[in-house]
Structure to design on (704 residues):
């Protein structure tokens, strides 16, 4: 170990090695190692001298050398197949925190939807002898599983899904989140609840629509007005204008597929002289503070609890690194954050 | 090396070692190593056999073992003293890409403004024998320098600033960006350009205000109306209402300290029946697509080119790892992205 340690420390002349500590303390390397690891038989005096020298030299054990001996690198890769966007940040942060508290460092790798780059990232991570891999994405839709030739590396997919019974995939419960939102509107007496959402090619779109339908059907209400478009405010404005065009069929609530759509809808209601939430209640999805706080009135929204997802991914990976075999798609609960736009919370109502 | 390699690979039973390759090819470990590294004297036949076996076993050299010998870990830490927010992510992405292309892997560390956590992160990274460190933050204000006892590790601060002549700090040129925006408004004939911005405790606030003042002064215009508040849409609405309250002093343009303020101001103009850009032109700062695209009309804004900052941080760190000594605060240029709200670009005007 010491020979390796010496050369590894060459890059960093300020970094002292076990050899330096031993030499300065006037003991053998084996003795210095025993003293620092509190193992073996040593006089109290020798141990104290070694510890004193180590402190004075700011000695830090070399994890690379330890990793080779311990058969653990205590590193994990985080691979995103797309850029780290608004959804990946909170997941990555919570994951990093959970792993760090377990003494594990996280490599950040962004493959930007380029399969060749992803392959090179995985190759690099294998060279670093990572103990596990977390795969995330900008959206929860199906992706190809990571294939590691002849390999038993623990892999967790979070906010990302693969079609394999052996894979562990952690996802938000989009359907359940939508059901929460619609049940809340129903409990407030709304009955004509339209759904305005994003592009149908997103899995999240049809899962949320399913939750909307299920909540209405449970109250024997026919789910009727369903509009898909873009994930944008501009689509929210356009959809609201369409839904309000016919006074005979005016909805009394809009459940929106994301907060940008909801905010656009609220703007359009105001332009058309329709009061939210009195005439039409509005609920969004994502609980993105930039949107919920700026909306007038402040927006009630479904929170996917992305931090909890990231934390759970870290916890699952640690279990798998310890030998547990975890598999299957797990959907973690969303929660509803109630503000003024749904009509439940008149006290925090309109700012402006 | 081989003994180390064998134990390191125990964690990952699918991963073959140099020893496995040598055994399968019927050669010594030294010979296998020579064949794979294309070094030493070997028969073409032996070399071909070793390479063939290595391919069949999906052999991947162990970087941990190499790192110990090469005195380079080929890893770098990215430390944020605050959570990875909207500004840190584009920086981190570009940094990661630049380092990856140089064969360097990036550890992601989030200290969340907790000095004790930051200290533990640095300790962990030292144990991993990182070759360099990049420090970033949620805002560009002064922070305490990273202190590494007796240490010569290259450190780059990006979107973060320390008060030390030896430190390399890469920052956006906030003052220059503001000057660009105001000069553009001046070139369009605007003369009564007010500045609505965020909290004065931010360095970016006074740098941008300085740019606004400098551009006006250069045209012998007295910089007059300057309002500081929050970084929010709600503050933008309130400030616009204040500025427009007195028709005798009505500004013909608002230069806003960020895009949220600009968007709030645009909303308020509309509510008060004031047309943008005809009556009042508006320019924001950040070029954040979520805001610029949803604003009506689409928002002209200053871009801090955060990707270029991250890329430059990676390039500088690579130079420093190769022995270059770089220091000082460098401010990289911002650019102006012209849309309809400033009045220059009537063709892409209002969507609604």
């Amino acid at each position: 170990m010491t020979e390796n340690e010496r050369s590894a420390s060459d890059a960093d002349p300020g970094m002292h090695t076990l050899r330096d500590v031993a030499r300065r303390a006037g003991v053998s390397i084996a003795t210095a190692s025993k003293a620092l690891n509190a193992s073996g038989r040593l006089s109290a005096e020798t141990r104290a001298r070694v510890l004193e020298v180590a402190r004075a030299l700011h000695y830090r054990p070399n994890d690379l050398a330890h990793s080779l001996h311990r058969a653990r690198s205590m590193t994990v890769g985080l691979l995103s197949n797309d850029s780290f966007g608004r959804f990946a940040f909170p997941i990555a942060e919570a994951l990093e925190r959970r792993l760090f508290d377990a003494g594990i460092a996280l490599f950040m790798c962004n493959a930007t939807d380029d399969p060749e780059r992803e392959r090179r990232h995985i190759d690099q991570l294998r060279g670093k002898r990572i103990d596990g891999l977390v795969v995330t994405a900008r959206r929860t839709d199906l992706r190809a599983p990571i294939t590691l030739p002849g390999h038993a590396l623990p892999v967790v997919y979070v906010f990302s899904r693969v079609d394999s019974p052996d894979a562990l995939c952690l996802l938000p419960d989009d359907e359940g989140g939508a059901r929460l939102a619609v049940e809340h509107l129903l409990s407030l007496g709304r009955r004509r609840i339209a759904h305005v959402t994003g592009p149908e090619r997103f899995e999240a779109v049809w899962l949320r629509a399913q939750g909307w339908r299920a909540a209405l059907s449970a109250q024997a209400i026919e789910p009727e007005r369903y509009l898909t478009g873009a994930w944008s405010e501009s689509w929210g404005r356009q959809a609201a204008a369409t839904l309000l065009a016919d006074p005979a069929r005016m909805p009394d609530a809009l459940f929106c597929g994301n907060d940008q759509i909801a905010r656009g809808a609220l703007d359009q209601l105001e332009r058309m002289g329709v009061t939210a939430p009195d005439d039409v209640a509005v609920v969004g999805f994502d609980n993105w503070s930039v949107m919920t706080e700026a909306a007038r009135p402040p927006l009630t929204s479904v929170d996917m609890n992305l931090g909890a997802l990231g934390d759970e991914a870290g916890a699952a990976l640690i279990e798998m690194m310890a030998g547990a075999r975890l598999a299957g798609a797990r959907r973690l609960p969303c929660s509803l954050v109630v503000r003024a736009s749904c009509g439940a919370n008149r006290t925090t109502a309109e700012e402006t």
